[in-house]
Amino acid sequence: MNKLNKLRNFVTIVEKQSFTEAAKVLHQSLPSTSRQLSELEEEIGNNLLIRDTRSLMLTEFGHIYYEEAKGLLRHYDDLESLAFLHKKEPEGTLKILAPAYAINKYIVPYISEFRTLYPKITPVLEVAERIPRLHSEDVDICMAIALTMEQVEENTRDVVKKFMFKITGVLCCTPEYARIHGIPKTRDEIKNHPYITHTIRSNPKSLRLKGENLILEPYLYVNSAQTMIACTKNHIGIMQCLSSYIKDELESGELIEILPELSPDADFYMYYKKVRYLEPKVGKFVDFIFSKQISS
Q1: Please, which of 17, 34, 54, 177 could form a disulfide with 173 given CB 3.0 to 4.6 Å?
Q2: Which residue range(s) make up the domain with 243?
Q3: Residue 129's CB: how many other CB atoms inside 10 A?
Q4: Of 171, 183, 174, which is closest to residue 234 (Cα–Cα)?
Q5: pLDDT digits over 247-274, tens only?
Q6: Cα–Cα distance between 217 and 177 in angstroms, integer?
């Protein structure tokens, strides 16, 4: 087991490209992380990493050892999952990462029922607008829009994605902003308006529209959908936001849609690790959520 821990320590350092970040992921001290790597190198009689003040690089042997270690750990994790399958009752902590909207609409209303069915599974809800590395972070399930997953092929290799629903990206502003500045009537006129964008997007300067995307120089970058909405409500500029996030504002007239004929559709997915034997806590939760009526 000690050797497995050292291998996992080594693989995590490589994947995070940082001793500090690896220590955080593995919930251990920085000195312990460094020491385990040194001990592993001493045991195998080869250097695995070239360290300098700016970066970490695998040695030639390190590349080979890293790939083999990843495979070994994957097989070990599969065996652990298989052991879980033979437990009478699913158990364990289940960490779910998703934007606030998805957490509040698709998980919170059903938590009590799920806990009643599976009292030994403890959900941990992390509200975040980011894409995790499912195989190296302590995250079991991620919910995200496909539009924001374009940039994360490396983060989501060997994952299962299950379609949840379609959603529309709405370009909008406030009536007050429209009164003062007018609103764009064509695709090209959008360039004349201050654009508020979200940093999670694969290219924050690219406005996704039907037909062809538009490259803009954003007026403001934010990393929160709620902050982006707040900025727009304060007449700072125009934004593109998921329709479900601003349903009430659109219905009340607090926000108005711009060029609806150009609004793109996107798919919303649930993501989890692709493993030979799915952990029961994950499988039970996925089946439970998809047994409900899911719509945007």
Answers
A1: 177
A2: 91-296
A3: 21
A4: 174
A5: 999 999 999 999 999 999 988 889 998 8
A6: 19
Clarify whether residues 226 and 128 are in a common domain.
Answer: yes
Of 85, 103, 130, the position where a domain reaches its end is 85
Query: Which two three-digit tokens encode residue 64?
Result: 């080979």
Q: Confidence class of residue 149 from pLDDT cuts 50, 70 and 90?
A: very low
DSSP E strand boundaries for 25-173: 49-51, 56-58, 92-98, 121-127, 141-145, 159-173
Instruction: Check: CB of residue 238 under 8 Å from CB of residue 258.
Output: yes
The model's pLDDT over 18-30, given as tens digits with 9 standing for 90+, comes to 999 999 999 999 9
Question: Left, alpha or beta for 257 (phi > 0: left; psi -120 to 50: alpha)?
Answer: beta
For the chain, give the percent of residues with pLDDT over 70.
92
Tell me how far CA of residue 148 lies from CA of 100, 203, 292, in angstroms.
15, 9, 25
Beta bridge partners of 272: 141, 160
pTM above 0.85, yes or no: no
Q: Are residues 170 and 296 in the same domain?
A: yes
Q: Each residue of 30-69: pLDDT tens digit? A: 999 999 999 999 999 999 999 877 778 999 999 999 999 9
Q: Is 204 exposed, middle or buried (0-12, 13-18, 19+ CB in 10 A)?
A: middle
Q: Which of 30, 65, 85 is the last residue of a domain?
A: 85
**H helix intervals, 86-121:** 100-106, 111-117
